[in-house]
User: Fold this.
Amino acid sequence: MFAQPQTYPCPKCNEIINDAMEKCPYCAAPVDRQVAATAAESQSEVNQAVSDASYLKTAAFLMWVFLGLSFISVIPVVGWAFIFTFVVVLVMIIRWQIKFGGVKTNDPDYPHAKRNRNLALVLLLAAFVAFIVRQLLVEIILSRI
Ligand SMILES: [Zn+2]
Assistant:
């Protein structure tokens, strides 16, 4: 099996190197295959956490687009699209938390991924409140007609 060289941060100087190298080009620390494999694995987990969090943020914004549209549109499908994206975002947040919530890394991208997750969570809670308020307003308006 010809595996692609996997990139990972050098355990000594934290520069991104790959396991096809004999030693780190930055600090000349020898590349330990076992350490490299473990580090590459955790690096790919971090990369996954970063890209999932980025999808999560996009989905949360999309959810707000549908919510916004449902305020100005009476087409029921828009409301359903909002509820669908709401559930998707909720599931994605829980899944992200289970898979990546406890990842131990000093990768600078990981805190960024966590911020995206927090942003998605705030957008989700705010959307929930906005949706409830909207439903109440609709009922009040309808009861006065
Ligand atoms: Zn190094």
Remarks:
- Residues 63 and 86 are 6 Å apart (CA to CA).
